[in-house]
Design a protein that fits this description.
This protein is mainly α and 477 residues long. The protein is 68% helix and 2% strand. The chain has 18 helices and 4 strands. 27% of the residues are buried. Pfam families: Mlo. It is found in: Membrane.
Length: 477
């Protein structure tokens, strides 16, 4: 009879326990799958862009499942991989217990693997039971240590899951808060359309300096003025990032450039549809983001305070993006002021890709994607360590390094939600081209279908023309 403290294998586990646990897991999985299915059907009817974002979330869940499968399948193989104890002396995330003790404890220290360090010194232990204990014993017989312990594999598994869920959660939170800010601009759109419907009086000729858009954004010419313009753009992102005059001017510039025949075009609705479409990019996790996670885990060396310094990276990038977007609005004002001394009627700006980095407005979206992922990584890592190892864990570092990281994470989340994301939604429409969201879903599907049919027809025509040329050659022969 097995001892009470001994872990029972599956063949010695009561069937009712196995059946009960399997039933609970299957029911939870089916409930989640059905819930996502019904949510997808609802979004597909009401909002195609959010439906595509949900598909991206499903892809992330499938990737997590595959990672989980790999960790489970290769668990024994990883534990059978033995390395010399000296290899575990370098790049430790925490200082080992007894690191400054006499050399007599070296044999005891060799029992701790690199994975035990990663899993947390406070919970590290030499596995002595089951298959994992046997694999660790094989390495010890050779005078070596396992590459990664069962404890560390389990914690790494949990961390990857927490990171992916946190990224989706914080991205969705950013979209909800940013969308609420953008929704307030709807009243500006309705007011403009009411004024257009009511008609206006004769057009007035006004000096450009009297126009509110120019007065707010234009700071004069010259090197000093340009430096002042950049400084104003940096500060502007923290308060009133988009004013009513900014919205009116950029809206009219977009309409006059891309849909001149429809002055009552609902620019606000188009902007929201485009932002919802971009959400599926923001919520996804690309290979480059996973590479950045691996690099950050590599640099988490005791004494380097890597996570503290890396917390500033998303903040610096966010401030740079916000400043650039504000400066694009200022450039639109500068272009008008450089060409005109007075304006008759409405002020019209000229959207252009030249205002953006490398002439590509899409770069801003990639940067926001990276910023949100890195911020989610910082926050999820903190709370994972807190829940797993406690507040006093060596991973937490000193309070002077820990508190600023939390404050920076909250600041980044709020600034991106209430300033940078709304700026991105409207300013990136000032590129040279419009997005496909200018059409509704039915028109988009019709246009895409027409394009596919046109490609097939052109391919058939080329095939017929080639066949005719071959037959013609045969006749000549």
């Amino acid at each position: 009879m097995a001892d009470a403290g001994e872990a029972a294998a599956l063949q010695f586990t009561p069937t009712w326990i196995v059946a009960a646990v399997c039933s609970v897991l299957v029911l939870i999985s089916l409930a989640a799958e059905r819930g996502l299915h019904h949510l997808g059907k609802t979004l597909k009817k009401n909002n195609q862009s959010l439906y595509e974002a949900l598909l991206k979330v499903k892809e992330e869940l499938m990737l997590l499942g595959f990672i989980s499968l790999l960790l489970t399948v290769f668990q024994v193989t990883i534990q059978r991989t033995c390395i010399p104890p000296s290899w575990t002396e370098y790049m430790l995330p925490c200082q080992r217990p007894g690191a400054h003790r006499p050399a007599g404890v070296a044999a005891t220290r060799a029992r701790f693997t690199a994975a035990d360090i990663l899993g947390g010194i406070s919970r590290a232990r030499v596995l002595s039971e089951g298959e994992a204990g046997a694999e660790a014993g094989l390495c010890q017989e050779e005078g070596k240590v396992p590459l990664l312990s069962e404890e560390a594999l389990h914690q790494l598994h949990i961390f990857i899951f927490v990171l992916a869920v946190a990224h989706v959660f914080f991205s969705a939170t950013t979209m909800l808060l940013g969308g609420a800010k953008i929704h307030k601009w709807k009243q500006w759109e309705e007011e403009i359309q009411k004024n257009n419907a009511a008609g206006i009086g004769p057009k007035k000729v006004l000096p450009v300096q009297q126009l509110s858009f120019i007065r707010e954004r234009y700071k004069g010419f010259g090197k000093d003025s340009m430096a002042l313009c950049w400084l104003h753009s940096f500060i502007k992102q923290f308060y009133g990032s988009v004013a009513k005059s900014d919205y009116n001017t950029m809206r009219l510039g977009f309409i006059m450039t891309h849909c001149r025949g429809n002055p009552n075009f609902d620019f606000h609705r188009y902007m929201m549809r485009a932002l919802e479409s971009d959400f599926k990019k923001i919520v996804s996790t690309s290979w480059s983001l996973w590479v950045s996670v691996v690099i950050f885990l590599l640099l988490n060396v005791n004494g380097w305070h890597a996570y503290f310094w890396m917390a500033f990276l998303p903040l610096v990038l966010l401030l740079a993006v916000g400043t650039k977007l504000e400066h694009v609005i200022a450039q639109l004002a500068y272009d008008v002021a450089a060409r005109h001394t007075a304006i008759e009627g409405d002020l019209v700006v000229n959207p252009s890709d030249e205002h953006f980095w490398f002439g590509r407005p899409r770069i801003v979206l990639h940067l926001i994607h990276f910023i949100l992922f890195q911020n989610a990584f910082q926050l999820s890592f903190f709370f994972w360590i807190l829940m797993t190892y406690g507040f006093n864990s060596c991973f937490m570092d000193h309070v002077g390094f820990m508190v600023p990281r939390l404050v920076l994470g909250v600041v980044i989340q709020l600034l991106c939600s209430y300033s940078t994301l709304p700026l991105y939604a409207i300013v990136t429409q000032m590129g040279s081209y419009y997005k496909k969201e200018i059409f509704n879903e039915h028109v988009q599907q019709g246009v895409m279908g027409w394009a596919e049919k046109a490609k097939k027809r052109s391919g058939l025509k080329e095939g017929h023309s080639t066949a005719d040329s071959v037959h013609g050659g045969d006749d000549l022969a």
